[in-house]
Specification:
Layout (H helix, E strand, L loop, with lengths): L5 H14 L12 H10 L6 E4 L1 E2 L2 E2 L1 H4 L8 E5 L5 H5 L3 E6 L4 H14 L7 H10 L6 E6 L2 E6 L3 E7 L2 E6 L4 E4 L3 H7 L5 E5 L2 E4 L3 E6 L5 E5 L7 E3 L1 H12 L2
Parallel strand pairs: 1-4, 4-5
Antiparallel strand pairs: 2-3, 6-7, 8-9, 8-12, 9-10, 11-12, 13-14, 14-15
Helix pairs in contact: 1-5
């Protein structure tokens, strides 16, 4: 949920809870910067409720980097963003002041169409896990030249500001011209795991993991990564199975 005004956030929360007390709100974000950081570190939720004008810019800057479609309920004091909102999978556009009735209508619409946004996760998982890649080596950019390396030398891949990097076990960092999404489909899933939206780690790079809030996991990497690496509650069990698989 993204809303830059605290009273507006509280009112929106109350309307959502009134519709269904069991709805879990994963985050309350107040700026574009907070939004980018959260979506980089967490799995994309089933639904987003968002204001359009935040403290540091338009929320569209957050959503243009999402890797898959997700339904969004927009709330705003302005009607001139309506057409733009539909470019980002808007399913409902609420003009402020936000009322309980309008929030209820928007959530009811989401429930009626949510199956259209849900991939067949079992089939996708089966495809990824049985598609054992033969990728053995890659080429990446080092300064103004290019360097080849063995996949067995990779510690982890990560993405930042729409640029993909690879960190080798030696600590060397190189720049790649592939997205994490493409890499995920080419790597051997016995050796590599997509920890979150911004990082794919090799098994040997994980030095330890520990429990984190709300069923999530925090993992430590070697070479060290400069941000906290959090595995979502939904992926925690898969990570444990992957890490413990011999």
């Amino acid at each position: 949920m993204l809303e830059d005004e605290l009273p507006g956030m509280n009112k929106l929360m109350a309307h959502v809870q009134a519709f269904d007390p069991d709805i879990e709100v994963l985050a309350q974000l107040r700026s574009v910067e907070e939004g980018r950081a959260w979506f980089d570190a967490n799995e994309i939720p089933d639904l987003i409720i968002s204001d359009i004008q935040l403290t540091d810019g338009l929320v569209f800057e957050v959503f243009e980097h999402l890797e898959r479609r997700v339904p969004i309920i927009f709330t705003t004091a302005f009607d001139n963003y309506m057409l733009k909102a539909f470019e980002f999978n808007s399913i409902y556009y609420i003009l402020k002041p936000v009322t309980r009735v309008e929030v209820g209508k928007a959530l009811a619409k989401f429930l009626s169409i949510k199956e259209h946004y849900k991939p067949d996760l079992k089939e996708l998982d089966k495809y990824v896990r049985t598609g054992n890649s033969k990728l053995k080596r890659m080429v990446a950019k080092s300064g103004t030249s290019y360097k080849g390396f063995e996949i067995s030398d990779v510690a982890y891949f990560y993405s930042k500001h729409k640029i993909t990097f690879v960190v080798l076990a030696s600590g060397e960092r190189l720049m790649l011209d592939k997205s994490l999404q493409l890499l995920e489909g080419e790597l051997d899933t016995d050796d590599f795991f997509r920890a979150n939206r911004s990082l794919i780690t090799s098994w040997k790079a994980v030095s330890a993991y520990k429990s984190y809030e709300k069923g999530k996991l925090a993992i430590d990497l070697t070479p060290a990564y400069d941000e906290n690496i959090i595995v979502s509650q939904e992926k925690a069990s898969d990570f444990k199975r992957w890490y413990g698989k011999g």
